[in-house]
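Here is one chain, start to finish.
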Amino acid sequence: MAALIVELSRYMRHRKKYWLLPVLMLMTMLGGLLVLAHGSAIAPFIYTVF
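Its structure:
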């Protein structure tokens, strides 16, 4: 996993694709939210957002 992060950061620095950083952060946060909400009591409230 760390190798992937290093590879992405090198790619963004080399190709000057800094606009990818907010997109990747948003995708990571949404994925984490869905994983955490899978088995919790607040899952019905989070799923109504989507």
